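> call design_seq(struct)
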């Protein structure tokens, strides 16, 4: 399975995020204390983008109606979202953050 470059590590500061477009849609990539987590940039409640959501304790909060998703697992943690989001493996190669081109478990 191939890997897709997202951005240089230095351009995604801790607490910040980036997005990258795959054939299947946009993926949001979060830097939490130097660890990178990637999930679909689409809330399973009503399609809101998750990249701009606040992050607390490894959870992203959908800006539209407040559903929380675990960035480690993609699990939907609070209503109004009940379906998990897909997550992607990440790695850093030569100073560039990459994500696997297919979601985990695909
Ligand atoms: S679109 Fe995300 S909680 Fe409604």
């Amino acid at each position: 399975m191939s890997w897709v470059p997202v951005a240089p590590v230095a351009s995604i500061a801790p607490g910040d995020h980036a997005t990258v477009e795959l054939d299947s849609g946009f993926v949001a990539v979060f830097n939490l204390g130097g660890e990178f987590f990637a999930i679909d940039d689409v809330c399973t409640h009503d399609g809101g983008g998750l990249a701009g959501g606040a992050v607390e304790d490894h959870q992203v909060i959908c800006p539209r109606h407040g559903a929380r998703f675990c960035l480690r697992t993609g699990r939907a943690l609070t209503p109004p979202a009940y379906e998990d989001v897909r997550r992607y493996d990440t790695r850093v190669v030569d100073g560039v953050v990459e994500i696997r081109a297919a979601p985990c478990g695909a």
